[in-house]
Amino acid sequence: MENSSLYQLIQSFSPIEKKDARRFLESPYFNLRQDLIVLYDHLCSDNTPDKTRVWASVCPNKPYDDTQLRLLMSYLYRLLESFLLVEAVREKGGEHKLKLAVVYRNRGLMGQYERNMRAFEREMERQTLRNAQYHSLMRDFYLEKHATTITQNPTETETLRVLAHSTDVHYLTHRLHLICLELAQKNVYSAGDDDPLHRDVIALAEREEWRDLPAISTYLATYRMLRYPAENGYYQAFMQNLEAVKKAFSIDEMRQFYTFSINHCIRQTNRGERNMNLEVLQLYRLALEAGYLFENGLLSRFTYHNIVAAGLRCGELDWVEEFIYRYNPVLERKYRDSSLSFNLARLQYARQRFDSVLTLLQKANYHDPLFNLAAKTLLLKTYFVLDEYDLLVSHLDAMRNYIHRKKVIGYHRTNYLNIIRYTERIMDPRSYDRPAREKLRKEIEKEPVLTEKEWLMECLR
Q1: Percent of the chain with pLDDT over 70
Q2: Orientation angle between helical segments 333-350 and 369-385, nearest 10 degrees
Q3: Is 190 exposed, middle or buried (0-12, 13-18, 19+ CB in 10 A)?
Q4: Higher-confidence residue: 409 or 392?
Q5: N or C: fewer beta carbons within 10 Å in the chain?
Q6: CA dist 350 to 306, 347, 387, Å?
Q7: What is residue 190's predicted lDDT score, i.e. its pLDDT?
Q8: C-alpha angle with apex 382: 380 to 385, nearest 5 degrees?
Q9: What pLDDT digit, counting tens, does each position of 57-82 carry?
């Protein structure tokens, strides 16, 4: 039952959400079945639910009926989905006032309609957000306002003009966002041609009338940074713009903007601009302090690993150690131990405490294949530094077999097989003479998929 959609949904609830969901189930408007409440309580408290045990709790005087239990689970799942929808509507703030205004208009209660329209407008004006969601809501507001105004005064054109302007802003903010997402993806995967329509959208967004709108100006700055990565001025302009209008965006949007900028700086370092390593670390620090990197109070394990890597590249070893211990508790619980041991091993490798590296890696169990391969690569480098060539040969064979057994595909398969291949070639006695090493160095430099290129080049010095 642990793999059922119902159990996984319940486990995703916070303690407060579990209490709220139970109150929802207790409401006779939504639910009249006590057995569903019993089922919910059991699944909340049982860490390893078993069907027969659950059935005995819900229907203690009846023989086990798998079909009936599945029906109960299905009923409860649908109810909890309704609970999530109710919660989502309740948390929308001013948005529900606009929806309520429409309900009143449909009932002919124009006094209540006008009050809710004014309340919505006041709330939208008070808030600091001026993002795509804000412009979407304002477009809906002006559309509703025009629909009522035109019935009362068919010659009125001002509301139509305002609606057209709001619709343009709504379109541009969403379209620019999509263009930025597409460019960010192409910068990673180098796939696809530019859509000719992008030029028209950008030209429209660059018109003077939109200059003071944070959503449009910020996405324009993002576009220029992503479209012309070699022009450092565009990156600087983006960061200045973002700092000036950061209150206009949600935390999720700020996380994405910082991700754009971090990835931009990482690409610059990959092009040889090593001074950008400090910029990457500084961006991570700023985003951490502002709380942009957390989702539901948790830090992604991938972000955790990337921050450690950034700190190590900058030689900030003491800061890295502090970060590893400070933020490990805010990872998902199932990744905490493995992330702690792996990143401590990376830190110890940087400090050249290789015995500690071996101890940390050899006692850890990394279930994720890519995580496991990253740990195996660190172990490979440690064996090489310690001149443990017999162990290294066995390790390389085991690593290659692991890649084939786990069916690691695409970029990652190519990368790790390249690491193994080039390490073996460096160890080959035939590569000891200068011409052979120079030839091998050139091959490594030209290799398009090789994350350990810098380390391998150092091995050839």
Answers
A1: 97
A2: 20
A3: exposed
A4: 392
A5: C
A6: 15, 5, 17
A7: 56
A8: 110
A9: 999 989 999 999 999 999 999 999 99
On average, the pLDDT of the chain sits at 91
Helices (H), 228-313: 232-245, 251-270, 276-290, 301-313
The Cβ of residue 227 has, within 10 Å, a number of other Cβ atoms equal to 17
- Residue pointed to by tokens 């649908």: 78
Q: Which tokens go with 206?
A: 């660059």
2 vs 49, which has greater pLDDT? 49
| Residue spans per domain, the chain | 5-90, 379-461
Element counts in the chain: helices (H) and strands (E): 23, 2
Strands 298-299 and 294-295: antiparallel
Cα(402)–Cα(163) distance, rounded to whole angstroms?
A: 60
Please choose, from the candidates 169, 29, 4, 3, the residue with its C-alpha nearest in 3D space to the C-alpha of residue 86. 29
Q: Which of 222, 216, 251 is nearest to 238 (CA)?
A: 222
Mean pLDDT in residue range 162-166: 94
* pLDDT at residue 434 in the model: 83
Give me the helix-helix angle, 15-26 and 34-45, nearest 10°: 170
Lowest mean pLDDT among 26-30, 34-38, 435-439: 435-439
Q: Is 205 exposed, middle or buried (0-12, 13-18, 19+ CB in 10 A)?
A: buried
**Backbone φ, ψ for residue 351 (5° rounding):** -90, 0
**CA of 215: how far to CAs of 94, 135, 173, 283, 358, in Å?**
20, 9, 6, 21, 50
What are the beta bridge partners of residue 299? 294
Q: How far apart are CA 131 and CA 177, in angstroms?
A: 11
Helix (H) or strand (E) holding 407: none
Given the structure tokens 């709001």, which residue do they identify? 166
Q: How far apart are CA 395 and CA 401, in angstroms?
A: 10
- Which pLDDT belongs to residue 193? 61
The SS3 assignment for 428 reads coil
Strand partners, 294: 299
At residue 191, the pLDDT reads 53
The backbone torsions φ and ψ at residue 294, rounded to the nearest 5 degrees and listed phi first, read -100, 140
Percent of the residues in the chain that have a pLDDT greater than 90, as a whole number: 74
Q: Give the C-alpha separation, 105 to 458, whole Å.
A: 73
- Return the half-sphere exposure (C-beta side, CA atoms, 13 A cut-off) of residue 132: 13
- From 235, 328, 324, select the one nearest 283 (Cα to Cα): 235
